[in-house]
Amino acid sequence: WLDLVESGGASVQTGGSLRLSCAASGDIPECMAWFRQAPGKERDGVVVWWPGGGRRDVADSVKGRFAISQDSTTTTLHLEMTNLKPEDTARYYCTATVFRYVCNDWPDKSGFTYWGRGTQVSISS
Fold first, then answer.
1. What does the alpha-carbon distance between residue 31 and residue 55 come to, in Å, rounded to a whole number?
2. Which of 77, 82, 76, 95 is nearest to 121 (CA)?
3. For position 38, what pLDDT does the model report?
4. CA of 76: how far to CAs of 16, 31, 60, 61, 69, in Å?
5. How confident is the model at residue 61 (pLDDT cuts 50, 70, 90)?
6. Would strands 18-26 and 11-13 be described as parallel, antiparallel, or unpaired?
């Protein structure tokens, strides 16, 4: 099992920055990922990170603006968001899995079974 707790969501203006955090406990995940869901839209992948090898992938929609970092002593994944735009407004969810094939299928979300409750990010113009 995995328990995931997100934090850091807030309301900021266009061009601002935010740092989201996801703390994982329980089993050691094969990968951790952030997805986001805007009202009336699908939940889309933002970033994925493999703790074991350091590999990471970033969605094209946020490449160059979003990055990930992690705590060296804990399984905590941070999403560093800069130059935020109104279209980044969404609820951001952290997820993780112990299965490598699920990680390899990212941004397909269907295999991820452990999800946090999400944290809201709102960007005003």
1. 9
2. 82
3. 97
4. 23, 11, 23, 23, 9
5. very high
6. unpaired
